[in-house]
């Protein structure tokens, strides 16, 4: 039986392990931490449970198909509910917009609360669906770095549709051309943050992202986001995948055009194929320093990172839902701080995720588990202690002001996740959440491919390579490897 080694047990690594085991390989997953999941983990304390990382779940079929591929019934392992409300949006002037999953209801809400028409909102979402339909086969489901990918009907169709995909305008330019109200523009510009990018630089084709929520639906796994990891690890073990934790990979040995083996701090593993589910910078810098790609990778701008506070709140807030956004009044300045000044804006946009709204047991009765996040720059030698302390004061003040309640007095439990911790725990270079940003119209083509040109049995998956960051795209990177491996 041929041996496959997966370096890293993030969601893409687990998915790649399941796919390769089903392909006939004997698969071993090597993980530096004592637990699987990478960023998709959980934490708890004082009766509160929190999903530590990703909080939005779309395209659940990419998870359930792994069970079907393994001959299992997905509902025996993993279940989820579709959200009726995608997000509650709050603005400083007191406006609150409830983004219903029903497009007509949402469009009417936007017409009531902003200066934009329901018709324009629906037309914009139709354009988002059009972009998805025109690009999903070519840009999401295939390698962009294989010549054979471009000799197909889907490619020809995509080429003819290129002039209508807003590649040569920024996301913000497109949204400003469609909408009049800054509230609406900010709401749709926000989707650039889903892959750690700047809407004032990222291409308008990223307006594909709203369709993932409004067109395909947003969901919440029963038991929380961490259940994605738990259920897939259980499946992987049942079909024969071996997990080896506390095994930090320190080198990949190569000879001629082959990757031969993987060394950890305590063992050596020979393999027929090797799949790296680690930040591509880390792979080249630490594991294969003889490879010739590091300078090429480092030319690309890193994505944003995140500063997260896990707060156990001694109260319930009925005006909040599972997903909530409190906007800054000056969105452009916020992104200038993140990507140009490498600092945190004094009035950041705040995201609050509260799974206890739907999951009983995530917080004690009468209380809520708040996952409070702002977008921040990656690590560039800043004074993070000072920046984090200032950001915390500004976040508490902003939430208290908008909700009309002194939040500080309600915090019963607190932990933090900082860019430095993200870097240390997950080997994400500079703590960037999504590898490289999409602040370039050709970013999709510059993102690292899923295979090595130098070593023919070496492959790459996860958020730092094609097709990009976030749970759906990470799962798709494993699916692309499945197609590449014979």
Determine the N-to-C terminus distance.
14 Å
Query: How many DSSP E strands?
Result: 20
Q: Assign the structural class, choosing from mainly alpha, mainly beta, alpha/beta, alpha+beta, or little secondary structure.
A: alpha/beta
User: Looking at the structure, what is the overall shape?
Assistant: globular
Task: Describe the main β-sheet briefly.
Answer: 7 strands, mixed
> Low-confidence parts lasting 5 or more residues at pLDDT below 50?
none
Question: Taking strands numbered 1, 2, ... along the chain, how are they ordered across the largest sheet?
Answer: 8-7-16-17-18-15-19
Helicity range: 25-40%
What is the multimeric organization of the chains shown?
single chain
**Whole-number radius of gyration?**
22 Å
Number of helices: 16
Proportion of beta-strand residues: 15-25%
Instruction: Please state the average pLDDT score.
Output: 93
């Amino acid at each position: 039986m041929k041996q496959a080694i997966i370096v890293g047990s993030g969601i893409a690594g687990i998915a790649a392990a399941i796919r390769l085991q089903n392909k006939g390989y004997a698969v071993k997953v090597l993980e530096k931490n004592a637990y699987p999941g990478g960023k998709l983990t959980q934490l708890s304390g004082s009766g509160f449970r929190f999903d530590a990382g990703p909080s939005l779940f779309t395209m659940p079929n990419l998870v359930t198909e792994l069970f079907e591929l393994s001959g299992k019934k997905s509902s025996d392992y993993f279940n989820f509910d579709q959200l009726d409300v995608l997000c509650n949006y709050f603005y400083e002037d007191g406006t609150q917009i409830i983004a219903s999953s029903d497009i007509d209801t949402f469009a009417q809400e936007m017409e009531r609360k902003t200066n934009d028409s329901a018709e324009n909102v629906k037309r914009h979402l139709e354009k988002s669906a059009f972009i998805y339909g025109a690009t999903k086969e070519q840009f999401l489901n295939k390698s962009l770095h294989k010549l054979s990918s471009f000799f197909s009907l889907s490619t020809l169709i995509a080429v003819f549709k290129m002039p209508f995909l807003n590649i040569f305008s920024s996301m913000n330019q497109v949204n400003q051309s469609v909408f009049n109200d800054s509230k609406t523009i900010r709401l749709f510009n926000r989707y650039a943050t889903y892959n750690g990018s700047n809407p004032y630089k990222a291409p308008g084709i990223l307006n594909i992202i709203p369709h993932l929520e409004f067109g395909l639906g947003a969901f919440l796994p029963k038991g929380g986001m961490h259940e994605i990891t738990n259920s897939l690890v259980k499946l992987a073990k049942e079909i024969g995948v071996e997990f080896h934790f506390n095994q930090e990979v320190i080198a990949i040995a190569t000879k001629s055009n082959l990757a031969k083996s993987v060394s950890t701090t305590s063992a050596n593993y020979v393999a027929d194929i090797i799949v790296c589910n680690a930040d591509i910078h880390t792979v080249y810098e630490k594991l294969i320093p003889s490879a010739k790609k590091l300078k090429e990778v480092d030319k690309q701008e890193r994505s944003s990172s995140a500063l997260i506070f896990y707060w156990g709140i001694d109260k319930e807030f009925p005006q909040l839902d599972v997903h909530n956004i409190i906007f800054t009044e000056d969105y452009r300045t916020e992104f200038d701080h993140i990507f140009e000044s490498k600092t945190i804006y004094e009035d950041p946009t705040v995201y609050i995720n509260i799974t206890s709204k739907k999951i009983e047991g995530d917080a004690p009765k009468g209380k809520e588990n708040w996952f409070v996040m702002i977008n921040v720059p990656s690590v560039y030698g800043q004074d993070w202690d000072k920046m984090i302390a200032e950001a915390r004061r500004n976040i508490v003040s902003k939430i208290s002001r908008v909700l009309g309640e002194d939040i500080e007095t309600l915090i019963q439990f607190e932990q933090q996740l900082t860019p430095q911790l993200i870097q240390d725990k997950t080997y994400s270079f500079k703590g960037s959440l999504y590898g490289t940003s999409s602040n370039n119209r050709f970013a999709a083509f510059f993102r690292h491919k899923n295979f090595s040109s130098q070593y023919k049995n070496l492959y790459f998956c996860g958020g730092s390579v094609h097709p990009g960051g976030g749970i759906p795209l990470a799962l798709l990177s494993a699916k692309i490897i499945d197609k590449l491996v014979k």
